[in-house]
Amino acid sequence: MTFELFVALRYLLARRKQAFISVISLISTIGVTVGVMALVIALALMTGLQGELRDRILGSTAHVYVWKTGGIDDYRAEVEKVRRLNGVVGAGPAILGKALISTDRADAFITLKGVDPELEPSVTDIGRAMQSGSIADLVPKTEESLPGILVGRNLAGQLGVDVGDTASLLTPQGTLSPMGLIPRTRRVRIAGIYALGLYEFDAAYGFVALDFAERLLGKAAPDLIELRVADIDAAPAISAGVPDALGADYVSQDWADMNQALFSALWLEKMAISITIGLIVMVAALNIVASLILLVMEKSRDIAILKTMGTSSRRVMTIFMLQGLVIGIVGTAVGATSGLALCWVLDRYRLIRIPMDVYQIAYVPFVVQPLDFAVVVVSAVLICFLATIYPSRQASRLDPVQALRFE
Questions:
Q1: Pick from 103, 100, 99, 128: which is nearest to 114 by CA?
Q2: Is residue 10 within 8 Å of residue 23, measured between CB atoms?
Q3: Could you tell me whether strands 64-68 and 224-229 are parallel, antiparallel, or unpaired per DSSP bridges?
Q4: Could you tell me how far CA 278 lies from the centroid of its own chain?
Q5: In the prediction, which pLDDT does 185 show?
Q6: Cβ neighbours of 257 (radius 10 Å)
Q7: What does the alpha-carbon distance between residue 234 and residue 227 come to, in Å, rounded to a whole number?
Q8: pTM
Q9: How far apart are CA 67 and CA 249, in angstroms?
């Protein structure tokens, strides 16, 4: 142990005449602990929330959407074409429209999505999300059977239906008659119930077979081709390369661009919370400044004696810097450890529940990223170190003659 560290620890741990200074040092340590712990938890909360929403969105929707000017004539040929793009692992057609689904119990407006039952599981997680029934049951087994529809668990609960029940679909596209435009109504069979985990889909989406969607919505071809990529971070680059690879009549958009507003808002919230809670560490640093200044005043006689014995001003400055650093390091270590432990408990046992219809997820996940954790720890220690500079310089500039004159 060096001389400077020995003296610094001696000053911190030894009993003092002025107990008030010890209390301030303790408060400074607690302040750093609370600030670091709160910052670790806040960053873990926002990171977990952002990651959970991203995973739910990417599991429920495609990673890249491709449109073709003039429409898609042969979707199977188009699917084979886009599947050859580098990084694409799945592709399938889709038709989107609005409908009113009705049962004897309730009615609900839904987004109707027409898909190819064979290709859709390669694009979204709908195949793994089935709680009952199967996506293959969308296609009627016989000509007399009703077309099938997949509904989310929240929508099924609202309508009071189960697999095998029937419902009515009403679409804005109608049939022209002498009496005017008559909306189309078709009976459908509940072929399955899924749980993608995203409330927007589980409560307001219905999946039907592609050919049935074309007849129901009055369309002759799919609206777009959906792609799934191996690396979601590469989705923007793959999307940007679609027109170059397939031709200028192709238009594409990736998941990050379509959800830019959501993730920008989450990132802004993360930064705002980090800055706000980071002020707690700043307050603790001010306490360190106050405690060191008072300590210098109390130990002026000791400083003068050290200087008369040959201790240089630099070594005196180092002693008081080390005192502040010890307070910062101890507070940071305890706060970071406590924050990690609390995040693990909150995430492991899902203790914080939130309304799913508002936040899209049922509980708050806590994910501590190594980079965020390292930034918090290093920043806290650095702030505490900067807080020691002024009082340490004052201690090093103390004149031994003036300090010992009245002793």
A1: 99
A2: no
A3: antiparallel
A4: 20
A5: 87
A6: 14
A7: 12
A8: 0.81
A9: 8
